[in-house]
Amino acid sequence: NAGVTQTPKFQVLKTGQSMTLQCAQDMNHEYMSWYRQDPGMGLRLIHYSVGAGITDQGEVPNGYNVSRSTTEDFPLRLLSAAPSQTSVYFCASQWGRNTEAFFGQGTRLTVV
Amino acid sequence: KNEVEQSPQNLTAQEGEFITINCSYSVGISALHWLQQHPGGGIVSLFMLSSGKKKHGRLIATINIQEKHSSLHITASHPRDSAVYICAVRPGSGGSRLTFGEGTQLTVNP
């Protein structure tokens, strides 16, 4: 049972490049979320999904897209990377709204 | 003012000490999470609670819904407890998002 798997762990992008951060969970969780973590700030929600085919915006959605075609996968797309998107990104999943949260290992992204 | 405030921001203790980390929040909630983040970055869920008290090994989490306050206690602290401890709440008004505190950096010296 792998839990929540995030790839890649590290990535350097040039300004304007696009990329996709992958997140997969094998626990049949309905709820999945993407957060970014920046120094001096708590984790902030980018986008979330309450089930396959359903996504919604969080606190800081600009510059990011998501899709949820299957229960297992919830990729995060950076459309045109900017230095302000330099951050550590975490994917998380939960079985239901008020259940334990499981986090991926994080992706450290640097945009130069 | 953040919706979730943690104190202290930094805490240094000697091995064996009893440690308390506090979390105050300003909204009605349906659940509160305590998380642990080790150097290297991975985040692990320690507790999820909506009332009362939970215990797991040397860790104890309590919550007072009326006072909008939660505490995480570590008994007989050990250097391996050194990590960032994060409090997060889910609003009770609906919606799916968690709101996070900034975290408490704990260092336990041998």
Number of helices of chain A: 0
Oligomer designation:
heterodimer
Radius of gyration of chain B: 13 Å
| C-alpha end-to-end distance of chain B | 36 Å
Biggest sheet statistics of chain B:
6 strands, mixed
How much of the sequence lies in strands of chain A comes to over 45%
**What general form of chain A does the structure show?**
globular
- Helical amount among residues of chain A, as a percent range? under 10%
Number of discrete helical segments of chain B: 0
Mean model confidence by pLDDT of chain B: 93
Portion in helices of chain B: under 10%
Shape of chain B: globular
Percentage beta strand of chain B: over 45%
Q: What is the CA-atom radius of gyration of chain A, in angstroms?
A: 13 Å
How many distinct beta strands of chain A? 11
What characterizes the major β-sheet of chain A? Answer: 7 strands, mixed
Explain this structure to me?
The complex is a heterodimer of chains A (112) and B (110). The mean pLDDT of chain A is 94. In chain A, β4 and β5 form a beta hairpin. Chain A has 112 residues and is mostly beta strands. Chain A has strands at residues 4-7, 10-13, 19-25, 31-37, 44-51, 54-57, 64-66, 76-78, 87-94, 102-103, 107-111. In chain B, strands 2, 4, 5, 9, 10 and 11 form a 6-stranded mixed beta sheet that branches. In chain B, strands 1-3-8-7-6 form a 5-stranded antiparallel beta sheet, with no helix packed on it. Chain B is mainly beta. The model of chain B has no long low-confidence stretch (mean pLDDT 93). The termini of chain B are far apart. Classes of the chains: A mainly beta (112), B mainly beta (110). Chain A binds chain B through residues 31, 33, 35, 40-45, 48, 50, 56, 58-59, 88, 90, 92, 97-103, 105-106, 108, and chain B through 2, 4, 30-31, 33, 35, 41-45, 48, 50, 86, 88, 90, 96-103.
